[in-house]
Amino acid sequence: MKDTMIGVDLAKNVFQLHGASMTGEVRFRKKLSRPQFLKFMVEHPAAVVVMEACGGASYWARELVKAGHEVKLIAPQYVKPFVKRQKNDAADAEAIVIAAQRPEMRFVPPKSEDQQARAVLFRARERLVHQRTELTNALRALLYEYGHAVPQGKVHLKRIAEIIEAGTCDLPELAREEAQDLLEQIAEKTARIEAKTRKIAAQAALTPTARRLQTMPGVGPMTALAIEAFAPAMATFRCGRDFAAWLGLVPRQLSSGGKERLGRISKAGQSDIRRLLIIGAMSRLNWMGSRSIREGSWIDRLRARKPKMLVAIALANKMARMIWAMLTKQEDYKDPAPAGAA
After folding, report:
1. Which of 54, 157, 281, 327 is deepest in the core (most CB within 10 A)?
2. Does the pLDDT of residue 161 top 50, yes or no?
3. Which residue stretches of the chain are H helix?
């Protein structure tokens, strides 16, 4: 049984360590460079090593597991309340140990190399989408300076191209050239986004988990890959409601004095999965509604008296709970229509 817990405040070059017994007695405090840190941890007897779940934490977790240590990651917001007085690296490392020794503390499982690689692909596509949006808004602003008001959205790019390329275009030649250059950059970004989308679809077809997730209506390759890349193992959660709460698809608690007060959704957890599930739920309500929602079902009754976005969030919550059940039971999606659901 390991009798030492080491809190590590990660950094790029200098790491702060705080070693303590399992009952909290301080054993050592060290400030080590990157090479010194790995050498020290390889030579140190097996211990429980705790770090904040931040950049580089999963890499160091894998390296320390190879050295025989047990590694735990804590979300930074759970460490902050345990920092004493002034904030510095030594205080942070000590706070990590104090937080980890709390019996009710929740830990974050480290990501595998494959998970991180999928996350890199997902983030690369997201970055290109943001860059295309920035370029489109810059082009719309340019045209607005000359009296052309174009609505938001990439669907209006064809209209913008017609304005720029028209023989009666009233833009000065220099402004017209810049607008054309922006259009070419947008076209380049679009081509790269489509290539990333195809790559994501190919990756989502490789694993049984992603293929299983796509059997659910409203879950496509993008959502399936995001769940594989960003969500921890479903065994981490006791039930589907815990997974939905982790995603932030439950009301924020503002209760006090025994009186329950519920606010808007908490928006905790992983924002990409939550956003994609809500988009998938909205697609079921919009384009698939007439086919997938049966008269008299719970969602049919809900959409008759609630705004569409609220109904979509409720459906996304249900989808999250179904995803937990599918992955824990290793089963494909089953249509719950006989039970009166959507």
Report:
1. 281
2. yes
3. 34-43, 57-66, 76-79, 89-100, 113-144, 157-165, 173-204, 208-213, 221-230, 240-246, 271-286, 289-292, 298-303, 308-329
Q: Which two tokens stand for residue 75?
A: 């979300």
Q: What is the CA radius of gyration of the chain?
A: 25
Give dist(CA 248, CA 178) in Å, integer.
43
Q: How many degrees, rounded to 5, is the angle at CA 133 between CA 130 and CA 138?
A: 130
Query: Which whole number is the average pLDDT over 160-186?
Result: 89
Per-residue b or e along 128-160, where b marks 16 or more CB atoms closer than 10 Å to that residue's CB: bbebbeebbeebbebbeeeebebeeeeeebeeb
In contact, 45 and 63? CB cutoff 8 Å: no
Residue whose tokens read 């019996």: 103
Amino acid letter, residue 250: V
State which amino acid sits at residue 312.
Answer: A
Instruction: Supply 107's token pair.
Output: 């830990």
What are the structure tokens assigned to 334, written together?
A: 């089953």
User: How do residues 221-242 score in pLDDT, each as one tens digit?
Assistant: 999 999 999 998 898 899 999 9
Tokens representing residue 112 in the block: 């595998």
